[in-house]
């Protein structure tokens, strides 16, 4: 798996006014934009060809992964900052695709597939879903191992409380092992009583090439948007699709809303800023 698609052409209306001119994908969690964490996760899993699906006003996302502007005299920076800047210079092959209108996640991913070789499996990573694994392999690395073992598509899942089901795509399936299920059905943002499963889709996928043709056929679904969930449902009738269930040591933050974004920053600070927990306690 050498390619990943990062759809970043949405309007981020939940984060207005902050997202009026600055793409939410560039909001920083401490010293890095959220999307850089996602790109680093992609690279760790071996996908260094990154297809950014961007739209109007989102060009700064691409600039971030360019070589640094010569106006910064990098040579004069302290070692640790310089290393971070230089690491970014050659981290990935930047591939850019345009979604002219935000018609939905499925539509954005379909546009992204235009830049992926027809016979290649690829990852899809939502740039507003930040995932911190406490030690060990990242979620994308584990998913790639499962993909390589079984040769089929893999969707990352997380157990959520029943009252939260309506916020996510929910997967139903049969257990194959502690952390793997075979997905039988997906329901996008289910109404109460529509499913008894608590396994929510959390924005990391690996797809076999077959999904590209299915995405081209998807009609607008829930909310009038072209839904990725509907293409996966079509895939389920043609191929096996597995779910990788993350463990409780893996933390997921939806940085596309204010609460998730604030929590992600606090979580990162607790790990990286000396004495941060005492400072927070004093504030409380
Ligand atoms: P979200 O629904 O979380 O993002 O989509 P959004 O639409 O930008 O946010 P709100 O709901 O208006 O606040 C998940 C990811 O998919 C991308 C978004 O940029 C985001 O990173 N996306 C969504 C697209 O690229 N195109 C779309 O048409 C929709």
Characteristic terms for this protein:
Spore Coat Polysaccharide Biosynthesis Protein SpsA, Chain A, 9 helices, five-stranded mixed barrel, 284 residues, two-stranded antiparallel ribbon, binds uridine 5'-triphosphate, 13 strands
Task: Explain what you see.
The protein is α/β, with parallel strands linked by helices. It has a single domain (3-274), classed as Alpha-Beta Complex (Spore Coat Polysaccharide Biosynthesis Protein SpsA, Chain A), CATH 3.90.550. 31% of the residues lie in helices and 26% in strands. The protein contains nine helices and 13 strands. It has helices at residues 34-44, 59-64, 79-89, 105-113, 139-150, 211-217, 228-236, 258-272, 276-283, and strands at residues 3-7, 28-29, 32-33, 49-54, 93-98, 122-125, 129-133, 153-159, 169-177, 180-188, 199-207, 241-245, 250-254. The strands form three sheets. Strands 8-11-9-10-12 form a five-stranded mixed beta barrel. The protein is globular. The protein starts with a strand and ends with a helix. The model has no long low-confidence stretch (mean pLDDT 94). It binds uridine 5'-triphosphate. Uridine 5'-triphosphate is lined by residues 7-15, 53, 99, 102-105, 107-108, 126-128, 256.
């Amino acid at each position: 798996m050498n390619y990943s698609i990062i759809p970043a052409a949405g309007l981020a209306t939940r984060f207005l006014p902050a997202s009026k001119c600055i793409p939410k994908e560039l909001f920083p969690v401490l010293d890095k934009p959220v999307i850089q964490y996602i790109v680093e996760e992609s690279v760790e899993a071996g996908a260094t060809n990154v297809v950014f699906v961007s739209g109007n006003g989102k060009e700064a996302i691409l600039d971030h992964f360019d070589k640094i502007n010569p106006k910064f005299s990098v040579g004069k920076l302290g070692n640790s900052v310089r290393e971070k800047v230089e690491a970014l210079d050659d981290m990935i092959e930047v591939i850019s695709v345009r979604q002219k209108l935000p018609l939905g996640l499925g539509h954005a991913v379909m546009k992204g597939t235009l830049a992926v070789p027809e016979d290649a499996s690829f990852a899809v990573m939502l740039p507003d879903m930040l995932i911190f694994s406490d030690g060990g392999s990242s979620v994308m690395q584990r998913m790639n191992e499962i993909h390589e073992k079984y040769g089929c598509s893999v969707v990352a899942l997380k157990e959520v409380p029943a009252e939260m089901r309506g916020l996510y795509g929910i997967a139903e399936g049969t257990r194959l092992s502690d952390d793997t299920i075979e997905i039988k059905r997906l329901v996008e943002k289910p109404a109460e009583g529509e499913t008894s499963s608590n396994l929510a889709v959390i924005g990391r996928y690996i797809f076999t090439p077959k999904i590209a043709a299915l995405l081209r056929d998807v009609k607008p679904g829930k909310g009038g948007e072209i839904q990725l969930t509907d293409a996966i449902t079509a895939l389920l009738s043609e191929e096996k699709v597995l779910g990788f269930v993350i463990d409780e040591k893996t933390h997921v933050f939806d940085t596309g809303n204010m609460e998730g974004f604030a929590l992600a920053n606090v979580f990162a600070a607790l790990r990286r800023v000396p004495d941060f927990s005492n400072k927070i306690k004093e504030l409380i």
